[in-house]
Every structure is written in C-alpha cells, then in structure tokens.
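For the sake of transparency, this paper describes our internal protein records without simplification. The record that follows is passed on verbatim for readers who wish to inspect the format:
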Amino acid sequence: MAGHVQDRWYAAKVGSDGKTHKVKTERYGTGMRYRARYIGPDGTEKSKSFPDRQKRLADQWLNETEADMARGQYVDPRAARTTFQQYAESWVLHAPDPNTQASMESQLRLHAFPHLGSRPLGSFQPAHIRDWVRQLQEDGVRGSYARTIYSNVRAALSAAVDDGHLPRNPCAARSVRPPTVDDKRVAPWTPERVFAVRAGMPERYQAMVDLGAGCGLRQGEILGVAVDAVDFTTNTLHVIQQLKLSRSKPVFARPKGGKLRDVPLPGPVADVLRDHMKQFPPVEITLPWKVADGPPVTKQLVFTAPRGGQVWRTSLNDDAWKPALAAAGVIPVPERGQPYAESRENGMHALRHFYASVLLDAGENIKALAEYLGHSDPGLTLRVYAHLMPSSQERTRKAVAAVFDAARAGPSRT
C-alpha cells in the first residue's frame, strides 16, 4: 500500500443524493489532525501525526520517508528512539574478549553515558559530539585515554548506523575532531639511570630491570616469564604470555595483541637470570587462562612475591618501582606519610624505550625492532622512535659536497 496522509477531522460519507461528502468526525477540532501513514521495509504500518494547518509538512515528511526507503537510507522511527546507552550496553557485549568488554563498559559508563546516554540515536547531530569532546577536556579526560573513549563511542555509533538506528555517524562529520594526543617525543633513559633504578629495587626484583632494558619486555610480560620460555642454549627468550588482570583477578594470557615473538637474550642478561633463579628458585603458579573464569594453567614463574605467589602489578609499582625511582633521583622523595608522585613517563615502560634507543643507535633496522618489541605494525615503531634513529645529515653533506667538488674541478686532464 502506497503512503498517504489521512485527515482525521473529516471522513468521506456517501449522502442520500449518492454523492460523496466530507463530514466532521468525532475527533474534529481535537488532537493532531493529519496522520502520514506508510508501510515500512519490515511490512508493518508506520505513521507520524501533524497538527492542523500542517498538511504540507505531512506530505513533505511522507515524500522524504519514501525517498529514503528507495535510496536504502531509511531509519525506523522506533529504532531511532532507542537511546545511545540502551544501544551501547547491548553493543559492548560483542567485544572480542571479556577484558576488553569490561574496559569499554567502564569507559562508557564513566565518560560517555552521563553526557550522551539519554539521547535518542535518531537525534544525534555533529554538534552533540563536538560538545561532548569539549566536555571531556573540561573534565580533565585527555590524551590517549580520551582518544580511546572517543573511538569506542564512534564504533558504537557506526554499528548503530549498520543496524538502521540512524542514517549516518555524527563522528564522521568534517567538523568533528577526536580528542588531541600530545606528540611528546620519547626521551630514553641513560644507562646510568637504568642501573641506578636497578640498584634501588629489592634484590628479588632487580632482574626485572635487566629483562625490560635488555630484552624490551612489557611489564606484564616480565611478570609472566616462565622457566620454559628462557632458552639458555640458543640465548633466546620466547615471549609467549603475560600476567594481567581480568576483572581485578590475575590471569595468564597471550602478549598484547596476541603477538608471540622470540627475542635475542644477551649474554649479560642471561647470566643475571641464571643467578636470579639460583637465589630465588622459580615457583609453580596456577592461574586462569585469559579470563577470570578461564581454564586453570600452571606455569613455573621466574619472578614471584616474597611469600611465593604471583607478583601483583600495583604492589610492585608502589612498593618497589617508585621507591627505586626516588632513590635514583628520577622522582622526588615524598614527605613522611605521603604517597609517591605519579609519573607515567617513568613507569617500567621506560625500560622498553631504553632498549629501542640502544638498538637504533647500534644501527638495527625498524622492522627488526618492531618484531622484538612485539609491535604488529613497523609503522607504529617508526612513529614512536624515528627521532632516535642515527642522523644522516653528515652523510648527506659529504655526499652532496663530493658531487659539487667534482663538478667544479671540471673534467680531469691526462
């Protein structure tokens, strides 16, 4: 049935003369007068009502709706009334793994739902996203964390477009800009700082610094190193797992991005690991695999807590790493009874930056460095560490100067 506009104040009635006349209905003078009706793609009737004297607007709305259906851009009004929070809470359940799901749920609940959650999907405009991004900055949510939250909101709205809840993603508008991320250049530590921090660590954790600075491991990968991952015969470290938290519970899991890799194990680092395992014998630890309720897996861990359990990341950072930073003069020593200052740029990740700087300074190529660091894209490695690559300026000057000098000298005479 083709769409049409119904006048609910009048009805057609055949009179005694046999002619059709318009007569007033019981609704005459009350409520919305015009109802635009059409059959949607799902086969059910849809409608929208308009007040008196807006017949033209009703016709226009119906024509636009039918044109949208013909172009494949139709949005069901009922679907458009679904709020962003209602949709996103369902969408996030399809996250690739429970840990990612928990992180996305937390970010949306804290930073997106308070500002965008009650808005119907069909009402979204680019201005609403611009206002929200500005509010994030005013709330102090900045940098890569804000960019991650924005990416999640954009992904949810893209899925809503695919599911027919709104015609286009407001985040895709040219006027919408994601939160900015400061392009701070990595400033690698000096060898003196690395070994000063190492000296400030408790003895049972000092070898962690060697693995971070000498093999480029992430903190979770260091905590998850098992005996069977260390090959002293070939001097190779197999990075095949990490120790992480899933809903605040420790679990074993693949390294970040699921990327397994083999890293050269330098002789001095291998010697440190041998000595460490003699002084602090590895302990079998059983934890769930990947998620808090995952199957149990037992690993003989190289690094364990004083009482024999796994090392908790927060305890390591607060009780060992930060005091070592203060002892080395990297961060100030707090006043008595006060906590250590937060210093994200001086976390254990600084050891990976040191490792990268050493390899680049020695002439290692970006592709090999990306492989050792566990980066899936060498382009990421290049963007982070390009400024640390040895300068070619002097080589350029000499090469060009040689050509110019030869040209000015003219052809050689025999």
The radius of gyration is 33 Å. DSSP finds 16 helices and twelve strands in the chain. The chain has a mean pLDDT of 89.
